[in-house]
Amino acid sequence: MSGGQYRYLFSPLAIGSITVDNRIVFSAHLTNYATQDGKPSEQHAAYYEARAAGGAGLIITEEHSVHPTDWPYEKMIHAFHEDVVPGYRRITDAVHRHGVPILAQINHNGGQASSMYTRLPVWAPSPVPDPLFREVPKAVEQHEIDEIIESYATVAARCIDGGFDGVELQCSHSSIVRGFLSPATNRRTDRYGGSLDNRARLLHQIVAAVRDRMGPTPVLGVRLCGDELIRDGTTIDDAVEVARQIERAGGVDYINTSIGVATASLFMIEASMHIPPEYAMFIPSAIRKAVDLPVIGVGRFKDPIQAERSLANGHADLIGVVRGQIADPDFVKKARAGRAEDTRLCLSCNQECVGRMGLNRWLGCIENPYTGRESILGVPPDAPKAPTSNGRRRPALTVVGGGPAGLQAAVTAAANGLAVTLFEASDKLGGQVRLAASIPNRAEFGDLVRNLAAECRRFGVDVQLGREVTAELIAALDTDAVVVATGAVPARPWWAPPADAGGATVVDVLDVVSGRAEPSGSVVVIDDVGFHQATSVAELLADRGCQVEIITKAMVVGQDLGVTLDMETWWVRADAKGIVQSTDLVAMGYEDGELTLLHHPTGAEQSRNPDWVVLAVPPRPEAGLYLDLVAAPTSAIPVRRIGDCLAPRRAHAAVIEGRRVADELTGLLTPVSEARVAMGR
Fold this sequence. Notes:
By secondary structure, this protein is an alpha/beta fold. It is built from 23 helices and 28 strands. The radius of gyration is 27 Å and the shape is globular.
């Protein structure tokens, strides 16, 4: 599809006093970009401007706290302080430069907050503790309800003073308003509890107060949860009725949608690749049938074709695309230009966006090393810089290794104007990412390699497959620098005997995934990594008919899956496939088919007698080529190593290092004035 063939996606739409020129919304999401004292930052402005320049039809910022009792995470915008306005102006001016309207989402998280930063009790409709924070909140009294309503109105007016085109009320997955709407958390017996009309009273009072304070012109939206996915929670029927009430009352210009509760069913709000795309569209579809207000739908949209299809099917009037535009700020621009195939598709891996938020860190992206650094680095280049015109040849860079580190280094260097050759020993690019993506339920992870390989082609990288590289080959090349990205190889733990000494059935996960080993019968998977390696291979083997037990020294199998919101779906699949999970056990030895284990909390020994043992254990760097190159007495060119051959980590580190080293070498190999131009600085 070319841009002109998206019949619905690129049609304008009036939303109250504004008109968007396309139907893609950069919806509200946490960033942790605020300053330590709760003010909007330069990074906020650069981040949102990049998506405005990339063509988003409408931008809705992350939530702004309306009241001092609401401070659920460290670097949140404290909109209850009037000194946020200058920061607002920087954001709105930056976005408006590109003709894109921008709204501020305002919120009070209610009982889904924490007293860690405020040292105050959290407020909620009833003293029902949140399952994540586990704090019993204070049930708000009437004078506190009045204070909340006034705080929403005050902050809304402040946002308009700061240049926003309007505000969105977050009443969906983490909000005191959601708490009042939901029978699961609203146990009140006064006029704010009981019937749906009573539970919706606070929402209607806030809407009326905000509209009165802002005046008739600014846009006002409400984001509703269509299904909390918890016992006795809000259902789609409730959400549809509330939407009808909102429309009848007037004052609201659009309805946004959500699914789940941020601290109980978060894995369905920011769904990973294990959840199908467009999974939540039943919510906007039902609401759109009930109201005439424009309705925004969300739910893991990876590409513009999916968004166009949902619009064409009448499920929504606009589509929220968050992670897709985190990964590629030019998501919309490329679709409009008929270049959707150039988009860096989101992997839905949740490692650097959702995962970093869960660790109270600022938002990034596993495959876009510029995300979270726009105020320093700008945005990813869309085309290579022109070669210098002074008659000299372009500096040449040799990259060894076609995994994510080497691919990103090659892409960045080529975009900076260097002549890049990439050597890969195998007949395919991707390294361990390619193998990980060969497991059916991890297939989307392969988009990381596909995206980088496409950029290599677009930026003119000379990719040579099936080429083993030695120090002698490098010495014979006419190259100005070398980047070694040769990855890592499986390491045998101390307790596992060699294959020729009784350990033939003790193999690494890579042996299984690559097909070098085909375990059968009973299999024990040792999880010493705590991520997808053990759980993915366990599912693969269970699907092949093996009886699988995962053993880990940690308190839970795949402990880091919780950060990426994969834990809940893993447990469901593991139970369905009969995978046994055993924790707090350390492998101590393997002899004559018996695996000896230590239960470290008690010191008791256990044993297993599986047919096979599969190891998900830390690998070791494959650094031989790098060491040969730096030891060569005649070597005078810069040599750098990145990714797993430097230190085995996860893919985000490889991508970040690829970009960083390529920029560094550009500066070394290019005259200062040219380097600044080449690196966009």
